[in-house]
Amino acid sequence: MLRLPRRLAVLSTHTSPLARAGTTKAGGMNVYVAELSRQLGAMGWDVDVFTRRDRADAPCVETLAPGVRLFHVAAGPTEPLPPIEVAGHVTEFTEGVAELTSGNDHYDLVHSHYWVSGLSGVELARRWQSPHVAMFHTLGAVKQMFQEPEPGLRIAGERRVVDCSDAVISATAHERAFLIGQYGAEASRVQVVPCGLDLNKFHPNGTEAARRRVAEVLPELGALDGPGILFVGRLEPAKGADLLVRALPMIEQRCDATLWIVGGDERDESERTRLRQLAEAGGVGERVRFASAVGREQLPDLYRAASVCAVPSAYESFGLVAVEAMASGTPSVATRVGGLASTISHGETGMLVSQRRPELFARAIGRLLSDDPLRTRMGSAAVDGMRLFAWPRVAASILDVYEGLLRERNASDRQRESCCPDPVESLLVAAS
Ligand code: UDP
């Protein structure tokens, strides 16, 4: 039997698990780090999460949940920075964590999230002689393929993290194939564990009652009395809210459907204006409604209140929104990419659309909106299907990875000694 409690260091350098998901760069990863840490805390682990201090009034340390502390580590200016700029402060961050924890023996294991954290994770794990588990959430090479060019530093940083980690956890087989094929990861070191879902939160609980509650807290969505198409997420082009605005007038079957675009904050006002203009131009200005990002406590009702949840993303490494909606009993209509292609079962729990074309989304959404029995059938199949992602099950799989590594610690220590001897600065210099 392994000794308990185990001490885990979690690195979430560029963004805090407390950041509001659905705004700028905060999304699925923030939700994931907070939830996994809570789960492990509840399972008896001592979890310390480290994030970069991005506001001057952040406390040095705060309690996130029983057994889980969050440290804000000074590294660079105390203001939000894009991830690529945070990468320039990795050494400071690493030293900051080392200093904060210098009174402790060590951590049994280090789990880092995103490549920027991974760079610190590799170094801290070496010092503590602990296994390092990396999780990327998105990969630069994949993003490049589906969205936009990524800085060379990111790809080089990811390669280094892949080379120097004891294990990489990937949420889908699709990403695992990339890690092996494009980053040269050793197949036996890449484990697929899907993202987790809080099924106590995300479950069906009556559409009409949910609509009444949503109307109270989000009056900006207007009367929720016809078919409702829900978009939830960051207001960035790759998420495709504009594609839905274009699709709305093409839904022939239900011209009373409204589109609810939920996400972003005051920094996204210009994008909302652009979407409003697009809606006006399409003659559906009255039927497109907006609300800023909502807290986790309001989301389940929002999903339940919707008739369908639409996820027309260019790419999703997992796509939490689609599975949260399905767990709440609402079928998802999404692009057939990344994690979405495996979490949605086409024709059973939702619909997959092979190309990001408004008319194809309009057709799929229209089909669902015009067939209540089909939608109800898919909704309940979706609820059953999403049990696979229940947090207790997912956390147990993550623990299997951890415990396997702890058992082979000696062997992996030897491996780490020979790997990544250069300081992280060499990487920064080489990529600049
Ligand atoms: N989210 C939220 N409030 C919002 C919008 C989004 O809490 O108003 C959460 C959403 O529930 C999901 C996460 O942000 O858990 C987004 O994750 P996803 O994997 O769908 O996309 P990402 O933002 O990671 O690209």
Main sheet properties? 8 strands, mixed
Give the proportion of residues in helices: 40-55%
Strand content: 15-25%
Using only CA atoms, what is the Rg? Answer: 22 Å
Classify the secondary structure makeup into a structural class.
Answer: alpha/beta
The molecules bound to the chains, other than polymers, are:
uridine-5'-diphosphate
Beginning-to-end CA distance, first to last residue: 48 Å
Mean pLDDT: 93
Number of E strands: 14
In spatial order, strands of the major sheet run 3-4-2-1-5-6-7-8
Residue stretches low in confidence (pLDDT < 50, at least 5 long) are: none
- Net shape: globular
Count the helices. How many? 18
Verbal overview:
The protein has 432 residues and is α/β, with parallel strands linked by helices. It is built from 18 helices and 14 strands. The strands form two sheets. Strands 3-4-2-1-5-6-7-8 form an eight-stranded mixed sheet, with helices on both faces. The longest helix has 17 residues, at 391-407. Residues 21-22, 27-29, 31, 232-234, 262-263, 293-294, 296, 299, 316, 318-321, 324 line the site of uridine-5'-diphosphate. Uridine-5'-diphosphate binds next to helix 1 and helix 12.
